[in-house]
Amino acid sequence: MGDDGAQAYRNVSLARWKQASRGWGAHRDSMQAAFAPVSAWLVDAIDPQPGHRVLELAAGPGDTGLLAAELIAPGGTLISSDAVEEMVALARARAAELGIDNVEFRTIDAEWIDLPTASLDGVLARWGYMLLADPAAALRETRRVLRPGGRVALAAWTGPADNPFAAVARDEAMRLAGLPAPDLDEPNMFAFHDPERIRGLLEETGFTEIVVEQLDLTVTYDDLDDWWHTQLDISTNLAEIVSALTPAQRDELRDATDARLAPFVTGDGSLRIPGRTHVAAAGA
After folding, report:
1. pLDDT value at position 119?
2. CATH code, domain carrying 123
3. How is the beta sheet containing 146-157 ordered, strand by strand?
């Protein structure tokens, strides 16, 4: 991706995340319930202690960082950040709801972290780096702001086949729209599907003691309609593709996705769909 393409991607990405923030807020509870094991792994991996200063990048509704905030009290501070203010507002509201007050809220671009060198004890990023135009730049910045001995912990999805809860709608919509299959090496949900890419980027950017593991998840929905509306609410890219389809194509899309998800429908009509993610940690 050249400089012009990277900047165009950044601009589109920011606009989409602003638009998607409402959906992420609306579905926060169900998503956090499904993804709680990931948040717990990441927080444990940075070994938070009272008095630590921790940054969460691409925090979205903020739940992962807020787990750490409770562990670094007293005396510690969480910096909960996202690239768009609309997401930061979700995390701010969640912290107020939980009564957690040792948090600073910042709008931060992970590729240019506006914080002093060697000022942090830990950095968390649940499903953030793989979406960036230049993840290596973001990891170099992460390494810069960590003190010697500080820790980074990140999550990144494995491949589409492991994650039908997200991949099915995207694949079928792009097929009906006549769009080419996405390049998995470009920034997208599955850009870090190869664990060696994660390991290589961490090594390249100066991290040591690298650990990369996988966690299996189950994502639940009330029924097929709940799954469908959730996907449209949290992915503006999918919503844009679907909105350009004809009514007949949209009906065909639902038929195709419902058929592919039928194996995950339980006796009461709810869905239990598998997911899989990489989790990684390293020392500065």
Report:
1. 98
2. 3.40.50.150
3. 103-107, 77-82, 53-56, 120-126, 146-157, 271-283, 208-221
